[in-house]
Write the structure tokens for this entry.
Amino acid sequence: MDIFALLMWPIKWVIEAILVGFHTLVTALGGDPGSGLTWVLSIVGLVLVIRSAMIPLTVRQIVSSRKSLEIQPEIQRIQKKYKGKKDQFSREAMQRETMEAYRKAGTNPFASCLPLLIQMPIFLGLVQVLTDANNRMPGVGLLTEDLATLFSESTLFGVVPLHETMAGGFATGDIAVIVTAIVLTAIMCATQFYTQLQIMTKNQTPAMKESPMYKQQRILLYIIPVFLLVSAWLFPLGTMFYWLVSNIYTLVQQLIIINKLPTPGSEAALAREARLARKRQRMGLPPIDEATAAEEPSVELKTQRQQPRAKRPKSRRED
């Protein structure tokens, strides 16, 4: 066993355990164990478990991304300071000051990539598990040879084999596979593009939109769908279902975050403040500014009442 297989072994074991667990559950609820729909629902369950377990990392990524964008003016100042200086001392000083700026902000330039770095081994593990199942090979854990055979022979709606690829569909002229693959790919690209577009247009402050990182994100906005198109050509339909459900999960998650926890100063934050103001108006409450102003006199009154109690020297003279 090579080092890569050794590292992937625990990931594949967990994937198989979750996949087989949901397959057993769906079968117990009346699903056909050899049906493609049963396996698709099992893959959906796998996505929900994995992505839910990654929510803390996702929150950390959001916070780190915001902090990284907020300190971009400071990073630009450091880069401008050492612009044109190619000596070793200047490069080390620039790197040191840059990392210090990230440290003071409580983030680092790689923190926002953490969820993606964790998802990639999981995705590769799933590809390996489904590839072995397509070849009727038992997995490293709970995926037995019988279950692998069931998966390799499963079809969606009786006509679309889950082990087939878009490339294979065009090679054999299988219209059902081609149409299914194209529909899945279109939804994958659309959800990915819309998710990133919402983040960039609604959840960024004007200062963030002037940073180099924002410009890089705009480039990725158009590069990632191209990468998805290439991947969809090669990966089996079962793997594409995993990717599709994961993209939809990310879209819903981002919409909730943008609606409930928008970046301060962003378009989404201003829209949320407007919604809260309208809600207060419907409830008959004063605007937030007026409510805050109305509370200030009571605070001043309390401080005035406490002042006479503090004048103890006067009582000593009377004694």
